[in-house]
Amino acid sequence: MAGPLFGKVLIANRGEIALRVQRACRELGIGTVAVHSTADSEAMHVRLADESVCVGPPAARDSYLNMAAILTAASVTGADAIHPGYGFLSENAAFAEMVEAHGLTFIGPSSDHIRMMGDKITARTAMAGLGVPLVPGSPGALPDLEAARAIAAQIGYPVLIKATAGGGGRGMKVAHGEDGLEEAWRVARTEARAAFGNDEVYLEKYLDRPRHIELQVMADTHGHVVHFGERDCSLQRRHQKLLEEAGSPVLTPAERDAIGATATAALARLGYRNAGTLEFLYQDGQFAFIEMNTRLQVEHPVTEMVCDVDLVREQIRIAAGQELGYTQADIAFSGHAIECRVNAEDPETFSPTPGRVTAFHAPGGLGVRVDSALYAGYVVPPYYDSLVAKLIVHAPTRPEAIARLRRALDEFAVLGIKTTLPLHQRIIEQPEFQAGDYTIHWLEQFVERAFPKQ
Ligand code: ADP
Question: Ligand 1 atom 23: the closest Cα is on which residue?
């Protein structure tokens, strides 16, 4: 390589993902700028960065979502580019626009594509037009309850009322029959208004036993698009992923190739650039698109392990204008990878457990990766997402990956606060998990059986 791709990258995030991006920058010889709230001045992402700037008080809206403060931090430190990580400003089209307007590079897609995919209806319309199969549903936003009733009668119950601006599993309600439609309509809109300030909703057929299978794509600015295969993220609670696998235990290589060809052709026609994930529900051998995430995902490491690729490095290279330099035929899939999300939450009630970590020991050894910003003595603040670590294992086969995961979970010690580690230990012993025989509804039912509410 001639020289560094950028002199300095500002990472507009915190926690494990801020460290993840820093690591890629450092290996590329790029300087790093951390931003942090006053609650995070002792955080690992601040300690390990070359430079850091405090951008505001603890509340995310005043710090990690404070666009003016972050742009000012980039300007005073002389950063050339901003990597948004996931969450926070990563899917904020106005922020991407502002970054570019300030003469900096936004490490991600264009603001037009972020905007298009951020609205689930325009995303559905665009994908349908590009030949990607959708979950049956309303063609656009629902003007009123009557319209919802008419479409539900047409496609058949159960149906799901979903927020156009939805994310994080919020603003989504099932109606099992016409009786429940009015309530689902009301609750979904109320939730959407509170969470996103936008109560526009649409309707989809509610699939009763799908898997969540998503496809990692990467596109450069020279018209090349590749995919790095699928991730199976069917283990969810309240529509939030808890454990992810690459590849899916149920997908054949031919099915992967087929959906991969459809998705990459669609994104090439769209002129998409940088990383993206197309999320599908998969049932009875059929894929149905639900949404596209225009950013790096929490679960990207399982893909990195099976494809032997650094996705953040690829994002940075593409943002600097480099070509991918390889084709789909060069991408090989090797072995099986599993990721457990370790949350600072009670493993039975799921209530957040911020507080001081008194001891921390991460597992290691062959095929084990831990992405975390925890350390002994660190105080997990109560203000942010509860994800505190990701444990990723990689092995030649799925049974070997499960054996490795069991061993790594046994080694993993986070003392002082409760975490979801014991929940993962129980999940991986279930016969359904071991057989790879689960849908998006399985985990919720397992949790109800395992921890009945008193
Ligand atoms: P969000 O943006 O809030 O994450 P998604 O549209 O990605 O919303 O859906 C999140 C999860 O909700 C999916 O992974 C799936 O488990 C469930 N889900 C979404 N749409 C449907 C549907 N039509 N039928 C059944 N489950 C669904």
Answer: 206
pLDDT tens digits along 334-377: 999 999 999 999 999 999 999 999 999 999 999 999 999 999 99
- The pocket around ligand 1, CB under 6 angstroms, is made up of 135, 160, 166-169, 204-207, 210, 212, 236, 239, 279, 281, 290-291, 440
Q: For ligand 1, atom 15, which residue shows the shortest CA distance?
A: 239
Cα 207 to middle of ligand 1, angstroms: 10
Sequence-distant contacts of 98-104: CB under 8 A, at least 24 apart: 98/67, 98/71, 99/71, 99/74, 102/71, 102/74, 102/75, 104/71, 104/74, 104/79, 104/80
Question: Residue 391 gets which letter from DSSP?
Answer: E
**Topology of domain 136-205, CATH:** Dna Ligase; domain 1 (3.30.1490)
What pLDDT score was predicted for residue 454?
Answer: 55
User: What is the whole-number distance in angstroms between the Cα of residue 290 and the centre of ligand 1?
Assistant: 7
**Cα pseudo-dihedral 304, 309, 314, 315, rounded to 10:** 0
* CA atoms within 13 A of residue 222's CA, in its CB half-sphere: 10
Which of 215, 234, 239 is the pocket-test mutation for ligand 1 (most atoms within 8 Å of CB)? Answer: 239
Query: Is the CATH code 3.40.50.20 the one for domain 8-107?
Result: yes
Domain boundaries, the chain: 8-107, 136-205, 211-450
Entry pTM: 0.96
Q: Are 134 and 128 in contact (CB under 8 A)?
A: yes
What are φ and ψ of residue 97, in 5° steps?
Answer: -65, -45
Task: Give 239 Cα–ligand 1 centroid separation in angstroms.
Answer: 6
Which numeric CATH code is attached to 211-450? Answer: 3.30.470.20
The CA distance from 416 to 398, in Å, is: 32
Supply the residue whose CA is at minimum distance from atom 6 of ligand 1.
Answer: 290
